[in-house]
Write a structure and sequence with these properties.
Order of helices and strands: EEEHEEEHHHEHEEHEHEHEEEEEHEEH
Shape: globular
Structural class: alpha+beta
Strand content: 25-35%
Number of strands: 18
Length: about 375
């Protein structure tokens, strides 16, 4: 059924707001370029109306924190078949973009800017050419979303193609127009599909059931080992994939730019940091009372988007940061959690089992 919003003005007698319309979807595109947070707080726009070698033009192109690309197409007045077919055609072009081509696209968009500088400023980490454009996703932007478009996108997403739609609706409030936004599919599902994809010569195999976890270098690994958890936060892009983890799942933890530091079993589902408790010598206490960086986490603890989220883990085998396992050929990804389907992940797990000897024990 088509997505539909209704908004009421709060009061003793709620008053529904009447629907309005934007002058055009061109206006919506201009608003997105002016403030990309309308679409996502975790993407950096790098291109607009970029010509492809297939004869068309991509409406907008963005990059995510893991270096994956985001192809954004406005539905305008095209039929579902036209817009989805065109987006898939453009995606086949995006998939082949080299780091040099991507840098050139950003230079045109920013009128001479450097992509690596913009990436560092936006995400706080250095852009890694090896992970740049290893995968991508397609986003259909619409002011109206019809049943046919929903069916096509849901069908493709269910088959692990990273495609989603975002629907905007305008409401009139006196002389003001309000813009609401809704995603057709939880962005976390699409992000998981992106994280699982690999461009390595099309190589893909069934997921081996082992989870990859990236644990930020700005967090204390010693405390994660001591109190039994992994986590992520500072934006929903970094925390939403934690929902992939369920009790019993085995995780292999890597600190980016450092190496693998542990393997463990998940014992509880994801939890906001403000509700997470740990065992100490003084008994069970809220984790925000014992972490050395607690004040930093308290700042956004009540913000669902920016809050830190934790997953409780029973460690099977771990090492200190100085002894992290890092060698050529091991898998890496900026997503907090993913289910890799590349042969490189199978090789990585096999190698890690030779370092973390207790990987199949009951834990400690």
């Amino acid at each position: 059924m088509p997505i539909k919003h209704d908004i009421w003005k709060v009061g003793a007698t709620p008053v529904p707001l009447s629907s309005g319309r934007l002058p055009s979807e061109q206006k919506l595109e201009e608003m997105i370029v002016s403030d990309p947070r309308i679409l996502s707080t975790e993407w950096l726009l790098i291109g607009r109306q970029e010509h492809t070698s297939h004869g068309g033009r991509i409406d907008l192109l963005a990059i995510a924190p893991d270096g994956s690309l985001v192809l954004i197409e406005l539905k305008r007045d095209r039929t579902p078949r036209e817009i989805v077919a065109q987006a898939l055609d453009y995606a086949s072009w995006v998939e082949e973009l080299t780091p040099e081509k991507i840098a050139q696209i950003y230079q045109r968009y920013s009128e001479g800017g450097k992509l690596d500088d913009a990436f560092q400023k936006r995400f706080g980490v250095k852009l890694d050419e090896e992970t740049l454009n290893q995968s991508h996703q397609i986003i259909i932007v619409a002011s109206e979303l019809d049943p046919s478009t929903e069916r096509i996108i849901n069908y493709l997403n269910a088959r692990d193609i990273a495609i989603n739609a975002v629907f905007f609706q305008v409401f009139q409030n006196a002389d003001d127009q309000l813009l609401s936004r809704a995603w057709l599919i939880d962005p976390g599902e699409t992000q998981a599909n992106v994280a699982a994809a690999s461009r390595t010569k099309g190589a893909k195999e069934p997921w081996n059931g082992e989870y990859y976890v990236s644990y930020g270098a700005d967090r204390s690994w010693d405390e994660a080992r001591q109190f039994g958890f992994v986590g992520g936060g500072g934006g929903s892009w970094y925390s939403r994939t934690l929902k992939l983890l369920s009790p019993g799942d085995r995780i292999w933890v890597k600190i980016p730019q450092t190496g693998y530091v542990g393997v463990g079993r998940v014992t509880e589902t994801v939890c906001p940091i403000k509700d997470f408790k740990v065992s100490t010598s003084a008994g069970e206490r809220p984790v925000l009372e014992v972490l050395k960086d607690a004040e930093q986490y308290k700042r956004y603890a009540d913000d669902p988007e920016l809050s830190e989220y934790l997953v409780r883990v029973k460690w099977l085998d771990t090492v200190a940061v100085k002894n992290a396992v890092n060698e050529v050929g091991l898998f890496g990804n900026q997503n907090t959690v993913c289910e890799p389907t590349t042969p490189k992940w199978r090789h990585t797990v096999e190698r890690l089992k030779t370092y973390f000897k207790k990987w199949d024990q009951s834990g400690s």
